[in-house]
Write a structure and sequence with these properties.
The chain is an alpha/beta fold. It has helices at residues 2-23, 48-60, 73-81, 127-138, 192-195, 197-200, 223-240, 243-246, 271-274, 334-371, and strands spanning 34-43, 88-89, 106-116, 145-150, 167-177, 180-190, 256-257, 292-293, 300-301, 303-304, 310-311, 316-318, 323-325, 331-332. It has ten helices and 14 strands. The longest helix is centred in the last third of the chain and has 38 residues, at 334-371. Residues 1-24 form the signal peptide.
């Protein structure tokens, strides 16, 4: 019996020592998360509500606790994360039996928040001082995305704002980071409430072109705060899905092969911009789509964040369904939306021409009568 017990113990020890080696052949390594570190530069004067909304929205991107209300902002962000499936994941992260992989999470956090109420570079945003703002927001930090938030008193028409959008992202040509010059991604977002609400604050303000449609109360009570969230959400989604930028989101090397094997045909650039002014199912020009309205505040929303906060965020192009995904969970065919928009614009132009012709005929008739 003593010999049998010793032999049994030896077998157990041998199994425990060798089992990790055996299982490692079939179990993939834990795929590393990406990190989108944001450095916020508040350029100008902002209300407390505006600052709170921005921080709460960013924190809501990764908030997927079960106790929260649905639909969640984090569900929308998971569509952003799915864009990393365009690449072939490296062998060590791949499931052997099913050959399935899970897209890396993109953890978003604010690593710095800087306020410049005096606006050291002036109140007019240009290409030159825009680059200076990016450098100021970046500082000496590496692998950080500066987000420049422009107060209502700052004009940005010189860089293309108020022409269908009030945000932009890109890469600066040269940015001096820790003594090295490299391309630096950035996001610039403006508060459009004063400068161009008709362009960028819809549906909280009447649109200045196309079908006006219905306007809604902002969920926070401040048009500028929630209009800025729509622009910020668009910029964050477009940045995090851009293949020229996502590779830099990992602390070391990315968990996938980035050259020659990505399925670019179904993954588009700027997926949130693609779905501009689409907030819910059944959307068409002048109509947000089916969204929700808080019965207590009257604020319009389509997603929930931390602390049961409500947000209205834009839809995003879903590569799996090839349509616009919104937080309500319904996909929208943007081809039909664009076709409808073109039809409505043509009909609107035709109506304007008819009215103009009728007025001209009436004026001619009046002039003929007066001459007689």
């Amino acid at each position: 019996m003593a010999f049998s017990s010793s032999s049994s113990s030896l077998s157990v020890i041998t199994f425990l020592l060798l089992s990790p080696l055996c299982f490692s052949r079939d179990s993939p390594s834990q795929i590393p998360d990406a990190t989108l570190n944001l450095s916020l530069l508040w350029y100008g004067q902002f209300t407390p509500v505006q600052k709170e909304r921005v921080h709460d929205f960013i924190e809501s991107l990764n908030f997927d606790a079960k106790e929260g209300l649905d639909p969640k902002v984090s569900a929308w962000w998971k569509v952003v994360e799915s864009y990393q499936e365009r690449y072939e994941v490296k062998e060590i992260y791949r499931q052997k039996k099913s050959n399935q992989t899970v897209a890396p999470r993109i953890k978003v956090k604010v690593v710095r928040s800087y306020v410049d109420e005096k606006m050291m570079f002036g109140k007019d945003l240009t290409i030159d001082n825009g680059e200076k703002l990016v450098e100021t927001a970046t500082g000496n930090m590496s692998k950080v995305v500066p987000v420049i938030l422009l107060a209502p008193q700052v004009t940005a028409q010189h860089v293309g704002f108020c022409n269908g959008t009030c945000q932009e992202y890109g890469l600066t040509i040269n940015s001096n980071i820790k003594g090295q010059k490299k391309k630096q991604p950035y996001i610039i977002v403006s508060d459009p409430e004063v400068q161009c609400p008709g362009e960028c604050a819809w549906p909280f303000h009447i649109a200045n072109k196309g079908p006006h449609g219905m306007t809604y109360q902002p969920p926070s009570g401040e048009i500028g705060a929630d209009a800025m969230i729509i622009q910020l959400a668009t910029g964050l989604a477009d940045v995090a899905t851009n293949p020229a930028i996502t590779e830099s989101l990992f602390k070391s090397e990315p968990p996938y092969n980035t050259e020659g094997n990505h399925k670019s045909s179904i993954y588009i650039v700027d997926p949130a911009t693609k779905c501009t002014r689409v907030f819910g199912s059944g959307a068409f020009p002048g109509f947000t789509g089916r969204i929700r309205v808080d019965p207590l505040t009257g604020g319009a929303f389509n997603s929930h964040g931390i602390n049961h906060l409500k947000f209205l965020i834009p839809s995003i192009w879903d590569p799996k369904t090839k349509s616009c995904y919104n937080s309500i969970g319904v996909n929208i065919d943007m081809g039909k939306v664009n076709e409808l928009q073109n039809t409505m614009e043509d009909e609107q132009k035709s109506l304007v021409d008819e009215i103009r012709t009728a007025l001209e005929d009436r004026r001619n008739t009046t002039e003929a009568i007066s001459v007689d």
